[in-house]
Amino acid sequence: MARVLVAMSGGVDSSVAAALLKEDGHEVTGVTMKVWDGESLPQREAHGCYGPDEDDIEDARSIARILDIPFYVFDLTAEYRAEVLDYVRHEYFSGRTPNPCVRCNRRVKLDMLVEKARDDGIEFEFVATGHYARVEQIQSSGRYVLKKARDWEKDQSYFLYALSQEQLSRAFFPLGDFTKAEVVGMAFQRQLGVAQRAESQDFIAGGYSSIMGTSAQPGLIFDRQGTMLGRHRGIPYYTIGQRKGLGISAKEALYVTEIDCAQNALIVGTKEEVYGNELICSEMNWIVLPDLEHALSVKAKIRYSHSESEAIATPLEDGRVRVVFTEPQMAITPGQAVVFYDIDTVVGGGTIEASLR
Predict the structure, then answer these.
(1) Could you give the CA distance from residue 7 to residue 129 in angstroms, rounded to a whole number?
(2) How far is CA 34 from CA 19, 61, 173, in A?
(3) Is 185 helix (H, G, I), strand (E, B) or coil?
(4) CA dist., res. 119 & res. 110, Å (int)
(5) How confident is the model at residue 215 (pLDDT cuts 50, 70, 90)?
(6) pLDDT per residue over 118-140, tens digit each?
(7) Which of 22, 75, 275, 330 is least surrounded by Cβ atoms within 10 Å, i.e. has the fewest?
(8) Contact, 323 vs 338, CB < 8 A?
(9) In whole angstroms, what is the distance from residue 173 CA to residue 17 CA?
């Protein structure tokens, strides 16, 4: 049996993860990170990762009490702002669409929170979360690999692709072999009191506008021929492929095809013009192999909500990767993660820099 640190959010998933680990005989310690710095936010309709977190902390504390495990709260408001909120703001103002969950998992939840616990004198060998994913070790190479959860519809491996070998070597994902319905059922059976709690629906409880402030400048919307069609309220509020909220009328549906930060302008086009065949990605993290040395056939996923598609990933001399899809993909978006799979195994992934037609 092992000493396991469990990152607890107060929700059903992390609560059941902690319960399962204790039932398996592990020495479990619960930890929660406080990330909200008290700034005013619109009232949230559902739990979010960033927003008033007092209720969430108390829910986690209550679960720890039910499970009879030690529980600690660590203040990471400054770290979260620097690593996640400032990153999100910078990316949006740069015309890119960030993925805060990927960054938070790698740099905050499974790094800074773990270090806080260690600095506080908590002894543990492994770190567990309520993510739906699995970790295995390849005996021939000794490398740790990240695999999809058994419940592919709930699978969260996309958000964990950036974890290092060191992080994967000490990671426990107790829910990886269960479906969401089974997890909710286990919460009911154990009378944890969180089985009917609403799931977190968004990164920011009060909406992205709460960290954008009032510095976003309105600008113009053009079609690809340079005709001015309307005005936008600020480029941080738009993403590639967006159709709703443009405030313009046309004979056919128009989508954001390009964000021109230099001109503070949106370029719109038809749905067909949103599709691309290739992308360039950087900030690569390889899991199955140390590095990509030659072209590799993969299934590539360009957003969490997108299906995987056949592609060829080819290394470039500067460490970036060129990805060519067999079929055109809708809304390849700079700033988002592209994750490569081999059936249920995460090969690696990176950050999309550009879409190529």
Answers:
(1) 5
(2) 22, 13, 22
(3) helix
(4) 14
(5) confident
(6) 999 999 999 999 999 999 999 98
(7) 75
(8) yes
(9) 8
Q: Are 211 and 204 in contact (CB under 8 A)?
A: yes
- Residue 292 tokens read as 């990509």
Give the number of other CB atoms < 10 A from CB of residue 190: 18
> Which pair of tokens denotes residue 308?
């995987």
Interatomic CA distance for residues 323 and 297, integer angstroms: 10
Q: Helix (H, G, I), strand (E, B), or coil: what is residue 348?
A: strand
Q: Which helix (H) or strand (E) holds 86?
A: helix 86-93
The residue type found at 40 is S
pLDDT tens readout for residues 5-59: 999 999 999 999 999 999 999 999 999 999 987 765 554 444 567 665 788 899 9
Residue labelled with tokens 């740069």: 94
CA pair distance 87, 284, nearest whole angstrom: 18
Instruction: Please give the backbone phi and psi of residue 329, each rounded to the nearest 5 degrees, phi first.
Output: -110, 140
The answer to whether the predicted template modeling score (pTM) of the entire model surpasses 0.90 is: yes
CA-angle at 214, arms to 211 and 216, nearest 5°: 90
